Amino acid sequence: MEIVTPKCLGKREARKQDRRAAILAIAKRHFMEQGYVGVSMSAIAAELGGSKGTLWSYFASKEELFDACVDEVTREYREQVMQLLVPSDNLQATLCAFIRSLLRKVTSREAIQLHRVIHAEVERSPEMGEIFFRRGPQRTRELLAAHLQDAMHKGQLRAADPLKAAFALTSLCMGSQQRAMLGHQFSDAEIEDETDYIVDLFLRAFAPEPGAA
Amino acid sequence: MEIVTPKCLGKREARKQDRRAAILAIAKRHFMEQGYVGVSMSAIAAELGGSKGTLWSYFASKEELFDACVDEVTREYREQVMQLLVPSDNLQATLCAFIRSLLRKVTSREAIQLHRVIHAEVERSPEMGEIFFRRGPQRTRELLAAHLQDAMHKGQLRAADPLKAAFALTSLCMGSQQRAMLGHQFSDAEIEDETDYIVDLFLRAFAPEPGAA
DNA sequence: AGAAAATCGTACCCTATAGTACGGTTATGG
DNA sequence: CCATAACCGTACTATAGGGTACGATTTTCT
């Protein structure tokens, strides 16, 4: 039976996995750069180097390949965004670092492309949007919320619903994302300015109330 | 009869304009609902009722027709959004009314579809995004900024760059738009809550400073 | 009425592209 | 060493869709 054999794969199996990964990598790049309709299976097969029959032996249709790509890209994206929050003892510094990273991330070319593709796909399968939202932006906000709640307990911020506060803080970055999605390229200086502005605004809005202990 | 015919067009010209408008109306609906690639010229011609030749006699290509549609839709959209700010003597009430309308607008089905289509088109013609941004969201912000500047002069808000403040206020609505673009349907109650939350947050962040005159 | 413009219906061309078929070839495993 | 699974190359099918051609017909202008 040998269930616990993580890798006692023969060369056959190994090669198949490599091949599948190679196909996914190529397809991912193409789909993210040119969208679903902009990419032909023939083009992918051509770059892959083999014959079209081989490609179809791994993915039975264009849709199946595309779905696999979206799965992987969203997973990677989420994992990257989740790492942006690095706690420190200074609240303002923590928030600045987080917002700076988040702004960089959401205005990056790859994020723009991913959002574009996702948005286009929500039409075809509406549940995908909800899935993406819950596993992407929502998780980030939950993580951030936990941190804000800490700060609230410490009296660094006024008491409030931490999830809504996190939603507000990240929403403040969405204006920039909108501009990015409409073609604007942000410079480092712009990111820096925007970061400071957002954090300052947030800290004012959630400043501890004078009367509180 | 001659009811002050602003345009002494013969029936020929009149009919041509009607026809053109009819084509645009049909094409607009199709493009907004199914995107550029999702619509075939044959389908538009079929719904129009005539022959394909006629369609091509009005618009020389699919791209030309599409561009005309985007022009019109963005113009309508902008005009509608520009009317959302109705000044009153109560700042909070004014902002609430504006934000409520804006949230409703940016989460509406038609706005979502428009943004989707625009986003998809930025790839093909990057300058379109910039044009849309300047004539759409940016104009709204300028209008709002003028109003905020008034409030700042009156001491209802602390002195600050009004355009950046307007950008922040509208950014706060973008989180909701993101959710809408990912498929979430907002209820009236959600809009109401979100409105109150955003305006409260904004007013806290831009509260007049204690030391000021 | 008669010329001119627009329209119609329909058949057609051309290209792109998803997906298939198949016979020959190479690598893998036992 | 041989059976077999994967692979290759290439040619092929089928369909969709943008765009054209053209003769017949209707509508409008003068």
From TrEMBL, chains A, B:
GO terms for molecular function: DNA-binding transcription factor activity; transcription cis-regulatory region binding. It comes from the Bacteria. Residues 17-77 form the HTH tetR-type domain. Residues 40-59 bind DNA. Gene3D superfamilies: Homeodomain-like (1.10.10.60), Tetracycline Repressor, domain 2 (1.10.357.10). InterPro entries: Homeodomain-like_sf, HTH-type_TetR-like_transc_reg, HTH_TetR, Tet_transcr_reg_TetR-rel_C_sf, TetR_C_Proteobacteria. It holds the Pfam family TetR_C_7. Keywords: DNA-binding, Transcription, Transcription regulation. This is AcrR family transcriptional regulator.
